[in-house]
Structure formats: structure tokens, C-alpha cells
């Protein structure tokens, strides 16, 4: 009897130890049976696989158990990874899911997120997201969320179902979508997050403290059990066919174009990409902006060719982008034909590699130009890195070269569980053109920064220097010839006594000072502080900011056609009230009111954006920015209007209309698109672009109608 009791006791202790050992890792289960992707999880393998359910709240109540049960299990074949998710809900009628289109904005819906790090390197991973409607979104995550590429499109699929018990999802992720080491047995980093929007509850499997988020791969659990899996596709063809017609007031032009891409997996982790006759006809028009500053405006990259793998080419010195891909194929808002190019990107053990060479065709006075880049980044320690960059823009007229080096020290173990990031970057340029004389002295830029991004206290300190002849022509440089000192301190306290406030956002210090390098005198200064700011338990956000500023342009500049701002020193104060309502509601509103001094007079600005979510298929968005400028030179009003209507037929087919207008250009642009995914990895686009002149009434000046089919062939 005593022996039996001892045995039972030891078995019980062993069971507890085994449970404790398994709380941070998940074992994948091998399967041979076919899995039907329907979100019902009724195959036998889902009951045989070991599921994890130990989810913990990050919000609203950090460290407490989730209020709703969530389970996850993983099974795999030799070519696919399958993830089964059970999101039980005690009141399934209140599930919030208002979107269905590809690459949806998941922060407003109930959702489930998976992050996978096949390298298990504490840095990089793939994020896959779905909601109860089966909408799909994916992101490539680098440097633990410092690099967040939402434009990465992986080849994967998901199906969901909703019952009285909650909602359920089945993911299939082909191993060919992921890059991983060529080893028989794999150990990956993995983590999961569920958001229950009506409660504003966020639960994670691992790394659930508020100092971290899902993108902090170093806090993830581990996935084991993967064995003898195959990378799958080695060769991928992506040919396209484009056909269309363009009308203007006097003539029409028919377009027919073919081209495509060839992708080769040199190793399981390194991809070689060839592109020929590269085209971007399916890309939505840029959002036009009225520039009320003396500096250039930044427009984001939208072309998928440059967005894929962009993390391997990304390099910056503080606010300066050393590589700004819109310098290739776009010149003064005109499209410059791209003959083709080659890219090599991926990871070899602990080394990230990015090589690129793109050749553009000649256009009018622009010569045919080659753009080349090499970027190598080496992992150091647990989460740090060192990198070098070299790039060249070359044509018959001459060349421009940029060289750079960077070091990032990152840790999430400061004082046990705090984050700290130290950054040091430096770059130089060299320019030589036949018809332009540019000095190659005083041609450097460098940046030093400290960041302490944590829950209750956030602090940043940085110093940037840009010399007068620093000229990165393949990058984006907003401002030249300056020293900049920046520091910011923010507190996010939480008080249980305040029933409707989740946390406060109080900022006593946000300071930016620009100095002239030669004279040492101040050129611009901005000091912002926030006496009031909070995030409500409902998800609404309110902030009130006070800004003290100084600007000292050494040359006058044209603000708009009728207003010239003379050189001088301008001091002023601005008062900014911002409100962002919770996007999970059927009707939501964002509002910003900004009033105060502006150079020689006053400026009163409001920004309003409204959202109407009728159902999971139909969504509306309307935004309006108005500026009243009361200056001695003139009194005038600027208006920018934008409207977007989206209708999703299903998760793989949606249509949208985007219209924009501003009163300074007096043009209205309308963009209509249909996006269809006939099979995973292939795309069809139907696009209609129209331009109206609104100077006197509304006159149609140009219409472009195009269809484009991109078909994926895996060999």
C-alpha cells in the first residue's frame, strides 16, 4: 500500500513537472490525412494533437487569466503547416467582425494572430492574422517589430466558422512560404494573440506583459516536433498580361504589355528574383497633399515589387532614408519605364543579405539609369546587429554613391524585463556628374540614439548631424545641413480608481532643436507637452497637446501661389486637441483641431475622418482637412477631401472606389479597382482611373481603363 501511494505521488509530481515544462512550447503533430480547409476542425487529427490553452491577459487586466477560452493546436504534413484555433465565446452574438477584404485593418475586429520565427533568432518572423469572417492579413516582422512590412504577401490560406460556442479557424501555411534552415529537425519560435474587441481584451500565449507585444519574438514560445519537412517550391514564375486603353480630351491610346518575374530559391533561406518589363498599373493613386511647409513631402511606396523583401534593403541615418525605392521608376510624378532587374535577398545563418540592380529606360531628357544596392546585416548577441550599405545611381551623365554603416544594441532583459535600444549609424555620399559640380567634402551624416520603450515610462534621446553636401540621391532627405537634438519623455500610468480610463498618456517633454552646423545658432525649435491624454477602457483616445515653436528660414519661400514667407525668425504657440474613437463600432470618428500661430499670422486647422461599417461586406470612409490661414499677405482656405467605398464579395475578391480633391490643384482623381485572387498567389486587377478638372464646373480630362492578370506557376 505504501509503495503504491509513493508511486502515485511520484507520478502526480512528474505530471506537474511535465505540465510546467510544457507551458511555453507547443508540439506539432504529423498527419497523413487530408485536411479540408473549412474552419470546422472536425478532422481526427485535431483531437489527437496536443492543444495549448494557457492564454493570459495583456489588456485590460495584465497577468489575469483570459475571460474566454482559447485553444490552439498545430499539425503538419511534409509540405504544409496547419494551425487550428478554437476561440470560444460566452456570447457569440457580440463578436465584432466588420471586414472581409485581403490585408484588412485588423485592429478594429475580433481577431487571431500567429507569429512564426522559423530561424528562432529573437528578431524576425512572419505574422498571419484572420478575423471571424476569414479575412486575411500578413506582415513580415523584423528587429522585433522595429521593421513592420505590412505589404509582404505570403502564399497561405485560412477558413473560419462561427457557431453559438464562438468562432473557429483553420490556417494552412505552405512551408515554401517560409524561410528556414535546412535541418532534419526544426525548432521554431511561435506565439499567438487573440483580441476580443467588445471587451477590449487582448490575450497572449507568451510574452503577455505590457512591456512587450506579439512582435517581440524574443518573448515567444517554441514550436517543436517538426521533422523531415520540405521547403517545397524551388522555382516560381509570375508572368503578367496587361491590356488597357487611355482616353484624354483629344485622343486615345491602347496599351498591351507583358512581363513578369522569376523567383529561384538558391538555398532554403535565400531568394533570387528576376524581373522583366516591370509594371505597376494596378497600384492605387498617391494621396495628394497640400504642402504648407518649406520642406519636401514624403509619399509611401505602394508598388509590390519594391515592397517584397524591403526589410533586406532598409537603411537609414536617423530621419534620413538612405534607400527610398520611389527614386526608381518615378520622376516628378511621372512613371519612368523599368526595363528589368535582379534582386537577391534572404538570410544565411545569422547574416541578412540584400542585393539589387534595376535598370530604367530613358524618358525625354532622362537617360537610362542603373540603380544598384548591397546591404549586409549581421546578427550580434541575442537581439542586436551590425550592418553595412553601399548603393549607386549610374547613368551616362555620371554617378551618385552612398555608403553607410549601422550598429543596433537591443535587449529586453534590462532590469529583468525592460527594453533598451541603442543605435549608432553613419553614412557618406560621393557625387560626380558631367554637367553639375558638387563638392565631395562635408558629405557625411551620423545619428546616435537611445530608446527606452516600456509600458509606464517611455524615453528617447537622439542626436543627428547632416552636413551641407550630404547627397543620397537614392534616398529621402527632408532637410539638409543641420544638427538636431531630440528628447522625449512620456508616462502611461494606470489608476484603478478611475473607472472609465484604462491608462493616461502624459508627456512633460518632447523637444526638437535644429542648429546651423557652421554658426551654431538655432534654426528651428519645437517643444511639445501633453498635460492631458488618456486611453479609455472603451478604446477611445483623447489627447491635448501644447506646442511652442520657432522657425528661422534663412531664405524666403512660397507657401502657396499668392503667399510668400520672407526670411526671418518666427515664434509661436499651437494648441492641439485630438480624439480617436474606437474603430470597432459601426460608426467611428477621428478628429484633430490645431490652432495657433503660423509664421506671419494665424492658422486654424481641423482634420475629420469618419468611418461607417454597414456590415462585413460594405464599408465607407470619408476624410476632410481644412486650413484657415490668416496672414498679412492674404487670407485663404485650403481643403483636402477624400472618400473611399469598399465592398468585399468574399475574402478573396473585393472592389473599392477612392476619390480625392483639393482646392489648390482643382483636380479630382477617382480610382476604381477590383482585386480578385483566383488562386492563392495569383491576382487579377481591373482598374479605372479618371481625372476631372474642377476649375469651372467638373470636366473629365483623362480616363484610363486597364486589366492585369498575374499568374503564379510553381515548379
Can you tag this structure with a few keywords?
globular; 3 helices; 9-stranded mixed β-sheet; mainly beta; 24-stranded antiparallel barrel; Immunoglobulin-like; 4% helix; disordered N terminus; 715 residues
The N- and C-terminal alpha carbons lie at a distance of: 66 Å
Assess the beta-strand content as a share of residues: over 45%
Residue-averaged pLDDT: 91
What is the approximate shape? globular
Radius of gyration: 27 Å
Which residues form runs of ≥5 with pLDDT under 50? 1-21
The number of distinct β-strands equals 46
Topology:
Layout: H1 2-21, E1 25-27, E2 29-30, H2 45-48, E3 56-59, E4 70-76, E5 80-88, E6 111-117, E7 125-130, E8 136-142, E9 147-149, E10 157-163, E11 166-174, E12 185-196, E13 201-204, E14 221-227, E15 235-248, E16 252-267, E17 270-276, H3 304-307, E18 316-317, E19 320-321, E20 330-331, E21 334-335, E22 338-348, E23 351-360, E24 369-380, E25 384-395, E26 398-414, E27 418-433, E28 444-453, E29 457-466, E30 482-491, E31 501-504, E32 506-515, E33 522-536, E34 541-551, E35 557-560, E36 563-565, E37 570-580, E38 587-598, E39 601-613, E40 618-630, E41 635-650, E42 653-662, E43 667-676, E44 683-693, E45 699-710, E46 713-714
Parallel strand pairs: 1-14, 2-4
Antiparallel strand pairs: 3-13, 4-5, 5-11, 6-7, 6-12, 7-8, 8-9, 10-11, 12-13, 12-14, 15-16, 15-45, 15-46, 16-17, 17-22, 18-19, 20-21, 22-23, 23-24, 24-25, 25-26, 26-27, 27-28, 28-29, 29-30, 30-32, 31-33, 32-33, 33-34, 34-37, 35-36, 37-38, 38-39, 39-40, 40-41, 41-42, 42-43, 43-44, 44-45
Amino acid at each position: 500500500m505504501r509503495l503504491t501511494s509513493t508511486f502515485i505521488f511520484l507520478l502526480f509530481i512528474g505530471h506537474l513537472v511535465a505540465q510546467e515544462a510544457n507551458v511555453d512550447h507547443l508540439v506539432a503533430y504529423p498527419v497523413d490525412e487530408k485536411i479540408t480547409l473549412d474552419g470546422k476542425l472536425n478532422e481526427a487529427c485535431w483531437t489527437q494533437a496536443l492543444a495549448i490553452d494557457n492564454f493570459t491577459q495583456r489588456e485590460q487586466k495584465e497577468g489575469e487569466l483570459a475571460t474566454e477560452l482559447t485553444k490552439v493546436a498545430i499539425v503538419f504534413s511534409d509540405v504544409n503547416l496547419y494551425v487550428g484555433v478554437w476561440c470560444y465565446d460566452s456570447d457569440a452574438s457580440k463578436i465584432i467582425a466588420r471586414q472581409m477584404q485581403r490585408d484588412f485593418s485588423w485592429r478594429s475586429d475580433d481577431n487571431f494572430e500567429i507569429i512564426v520565427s522559423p530561424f528562432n533568432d529573437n528578431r524576425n518572423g512572419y505574422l498571419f492574422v484572420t478575423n471571424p469572417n476569414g479575412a486575411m492579413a500578413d506582415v513580415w516582422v523584423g528587429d522585433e517589430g522595429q521593421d513592420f512590412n505590412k505589404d509582404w504577401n505570403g502564399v497561405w490560406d485560412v477558413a473560419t466558422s462561427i457557431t453559438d460556442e464562438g468562432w473557429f479557424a483553420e490556417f494552412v501555411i505552405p512551408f515554401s512560404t517560409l524561410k528556414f534552415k535546412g535541418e532534419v529537425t526544426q525548432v521554431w519560435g511561435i506565439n499567438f494573440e487573440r483580441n476580443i474587441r467588445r471587451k477590449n481584451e487582448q490575450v497572449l500565449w507568451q510574452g503577455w506583459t505590457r512591456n512587450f507585444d506579439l512582435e517581440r519574438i524574443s518573448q515567444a514560445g517554441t514550436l517543436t516536433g517538426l521533422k523531415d519537412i520540405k521547403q517545397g517550391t524551388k522555382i516560381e514564375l509570375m508572368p503578367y498580361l496587361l491590356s488597357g486603353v487611355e482616353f484624354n480630351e483629344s485622343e486615345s491610346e491602347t496599351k498591351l504589355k507583358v512581363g513578369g518575374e522569376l523567383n529561384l530559391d538558391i538555398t532554403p533561406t535565400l531568394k533570387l528574383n528576376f524581373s522583366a518589363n516591370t509594371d505597376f498599373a494596378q497600384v492605387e493613386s498617391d494621396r495628394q497633399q497640400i504642402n504648407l511647409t518649406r520642406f519636401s513631402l514624403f509619399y509611401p511606396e505602394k508598388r509590390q515589387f519594391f515592397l517584397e523583401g524591403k526589410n533586406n534593403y532598409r537603411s537609414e541615418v536617423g530621419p534620413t532614408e538612405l534607400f527610398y525605392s520611389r527614386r526608381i521608376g518615378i520622376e516628378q510624378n511621372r512613371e519612368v519605364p523599368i526595363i528589368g532587374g535582379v534582386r537577391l535577398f534572404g538570410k544565411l545563418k545569422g547574416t541578412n543579405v540584400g542585393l539589387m540592380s534595376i535598370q530604367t529606360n530613358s524618358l525625354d531628357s532622362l537617360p537610362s539609369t542603373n540603380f544598384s544596392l548591397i546591404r549586409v546585416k549581421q546578427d550580434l548577441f541575442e537581439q542586436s546587429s551590425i550592418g553595412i550599405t553601399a548603393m549607386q545611381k549610374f547613368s551616362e551623365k555620371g554617378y551618385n554613391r552612398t555608403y553607410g554603416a549601422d550598429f543596433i544594441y537591443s535587449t529586453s532583459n534590462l532590469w529583468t524585463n525592460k527594453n533598451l535600444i541603442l543605435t549608432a549609424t553613419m553614412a557618406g555620399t560621393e557625387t560626380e556628374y558631367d554637367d553639375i559640380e558638387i563638392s565631395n567634402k562635408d558629405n557625411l551624416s551620423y545619428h546616435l540614439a537611445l530608446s527606452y520603450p516600456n509600458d509606464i515610462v517611455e524615453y528617447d534621446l537622439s542626436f543627428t548631424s547632416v552636413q551641407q553636401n550630404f547627397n543620397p540621391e537614392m534616398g529621402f532627405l527632408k532637410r539638409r545641413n543641420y544638427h538636431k537634438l531630440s528628447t522625449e519623455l512620456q508616462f502611461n500610468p494606470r489608476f484603478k480608481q478611475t473607472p472609465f480610463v484604462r491608462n493616461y498618456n502624459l508627456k512633460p517633454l518632447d523637444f526638437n532643436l535644429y542648429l546651423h552646423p557652421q554658426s551654431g545658432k538655432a534654426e528651428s525649435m519645437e517643444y511639445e507637452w501633453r498635460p492631458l491624454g488618456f486611453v479609455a477602457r472603451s478604446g477611445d483616445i483623447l489627447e491635448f497637446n501644447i506646442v511652442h515653436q520657432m522657425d528661422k528660414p534663412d531664405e524666403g519661400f512660397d507657401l502657396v501661389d499668392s503667399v510668400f514667407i520672407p526670411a526671418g525668425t518666427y515664434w509661436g504657440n499651437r494648441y492641439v486637441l485630438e480624439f480617436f474613437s474606437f474603430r470597432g463600432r459601426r460608426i467611428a470618428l477621428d478628429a484633430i483641431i490645431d490652432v495657433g500661430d503660423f509664421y506671419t499670422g494665424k492658422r486654424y486647422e481641423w482634420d475629420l475622418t469618419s468611418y461607417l461599417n454597414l456590415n462585413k461586406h460594405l464599408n465607407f470612409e470619408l476624410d476632410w482637412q481644412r486650413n484657415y490661414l490668416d496672414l498679412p499677405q492674404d487670407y485663404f482656405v485650403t481643403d483636402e477631401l477624400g472618400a473611399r467605398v469598399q465592398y468585399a464579395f468574399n475574402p478573396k475578391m473585393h472592389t473599392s472606389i477612392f476619390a480625392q480633391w483639393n482646392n489648390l490643384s482643382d483636380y479630382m482623381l477617382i480610382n476604381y479597382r477590383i482585386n480578385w485572387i483566383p488562386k492563392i498567389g495569383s491576382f487579377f486587377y481591373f482598374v479605372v482611373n479618371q481625372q476631372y478638372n474642377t476649375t469651372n464646373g467638373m470636366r473629365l480630362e483623362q480616363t484610363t481603363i486597364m486589366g492585369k492578370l498575374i499568374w503564379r506557376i510553381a515548379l
